[in-house]
Amino acid sequence: MPVAASQQQNSIQRSPEPPIDTCAAQDCYEHGHSVRRTAVLFFLCLIPFWSIPLAHVISQPETATGFFNYELPYYVANGRAAFDRGNGVTYPNPYLADEEAPAIYAHWLLWLMGVATAVVGVDPGDLILIATLSASVLFAWTTWQLVGVRVRGVARRRAAFAGAMLGGGLLAGGGLYSALLGGGSLLQFDPGKGLWFLNWGRNCLFPTEAVYHAVVASCWLSEIRGRQRAANFFLVLLATTHPWSGIELLLTVNLFRGVVWLRQRDRANLTQVALSASVLVAFLVYYKIWLPAFPTHASLQQVWNLNWRVEYLTALLAWGPVAVAALVYVRTCAARMSRADRFLLCAFVVAFSLSMHDRLINPIQPLHFTRGYVWMPLFLLGLPVWMAWGRGGLQKTQGWAQTGKLVIAATLLLLIVSDNLVFAAVHFQRQVQQADGFHLTSDERSLFAALGRPECAGRVTLTESEKINYLLPTWVAVRPWVGHQFNTPDYAERMHVWSACFQQERVDADSVPADVTQIVVRSDTDSQCLQAEWMQVPAGNARWKIWHRQPTSDRDE
Containing H/E element for 549? Predict the structure, then answer.
């Protein structure tokens, strides 16, 4: 020991700097190690959801498009429409065949997708895969920031983050119990096979939802911290790209600011209330007055008024576990609630009311207001309680008693994360089996290339394939006569006409609508009846035929 002490003293005498450098190096190492561990945690929390698009790709790499869900091509189609059929900013409904369709929609996120595909030339499916990966990381980072408001310490923050990303409820447990009793599936209580995303973390699966929720988390975080300029920025950002999440966030912020103003009655808070209320009014004028003034939009709005409701049992299983801890926290801290507590309560009240609004007024897709917006405020409110329960329960016991509590805690943890793990497993299997998503053969891709030629652009197009009808505006600048099931006007009637056009492997020319100027059929389908009024053009492959309706003057000649 004396020798070591002497050596250390000589070292210090020669240079007073190394001890400081050593401490700095140690701090740097520990910080880097902490960052790496957090990055690994991010990866572990995202991989269950990433496995779904990965399964889509590996199921058949040569045909996988990147669109692993039905709705994803629709987003790109809207973005492309701004350049293919709009003015570069606003766009018409891409599934409205009318050449005079009004360009009345504008959403910046979808517009960016249009820039990437229509201007830069990125493959639409590749764009979705890239966006899914990058947006999910952004979503995870904003979630990490958000849970940091409720817990202190890196270890607790990591635990809270993992809970926010992977936690759910008892939906899978309820499904398993019901299945064991004699029927049903694991996701029977999870609406839409779980694709309504009743918990928070699952929203990282879709690039659009991941971006929306990252913006929401940023707005929540800014408002909780009193950074209202930033909150206003994120508020406007979301309101200008998504109607459902937009109205939800607008009502949340306005309710919270109203509560704060009623408590303090100062000019600064009144100004903020006026600002957010102005955005809300502009939002409502656009969606409830201006858009419905266009008949084409009004007809679609009638279709959207669907009673996709949250059943009481589903609500109990999905939100009950996080609601228990939130209720304990609110009852314990009711007299000394913080700004964050009040904001989260407002967020819960708004989201829950919108999700259950069909009990009071005519329904407008109540499930669309869930998306984790009910679950997350409850989870964040109850976080201190969860942490206290975990810490207290394990510190006060030893030996077998502590082992028993660890087993109980592990079982409860498995139940809570089972919703998302079961969801990921089920949808991984569905992708492998190609039950979901879109695949294109090489002939179908060459068909899209042919339809992308200038002479095909802008034509009202009807194809023999229901899949290609839907994907047309995602890849090329044509106007599909029928496409998306909820965004094509008179979809049911048009599908009836479509069925009449292609029967028994032949084309019925008399059933083809008068406004259709381009027909695409398989080569083995009898289309000879089209020769009188139509002209065949190259399709780029031997599997398909493209027919163009000839102008009346050309037919007379």
Answer: strand 544-549
The pLDDT of residue 554: 55
Query: How many angstroms separate the CA atoms of 324 and 264, rounded?
Result: 31
Question: Residue 426 — pLDDT band, cuts 50, 70, 90?
Answer: very high
Question: Which helix (H) or strand (E) covers residue 492, if one does?
Answer: helix 491-501
CA-CA distances (angstroms) from residue 84 to 43, 449, 546? Answer: 38, 15, 21
Which single residue is written with the structure tokens 């309820």? Answer: 174
d(CA 545, CA 467): 16
- The candidate with the shortest Cα–Cα distance to 373, out of 416, 344, 342, is 344
Helices 18-59/154-166 angle, 10° precision: 10
- Taking only the tens place, the pLDDT of each residue in 340-392 is 999 999 999 999 999 999 999 999 999 999 999 999 999 999 999 988 877 76
Specify the pLDDT at position 37: 93
In order of 223, 225, 263, 333, the CA distances from 260 in angstroms are: 11, 13, 5, 18
Contact 358, 373 (CB under 8 A): no
Contact assessment for residue 461 and residue 480, using Cβ atoms and an 8 Å cutoff: yes
Q: CB of 286 within 8 A of CB of 341? A: no
Cβ atoms 250, 279 nearer than 8 A: yes
Kindly give, in sequence order, each residue whose CB lies less than 8 Å from that of residue 555, ignoring residues fewer than 6 positions away.
Answer: 532, 533
Distance CA 429, CA 425 (A): 6
pTM: 0.91
Q: Whole-number mean pLDDT of the chain?
A: 91
- What number of other Cβ atoms are within 10 A of residue 183's Cβ? 8
Least confident window among 333-337, 388-392, 424-428, 504-508? 388-392
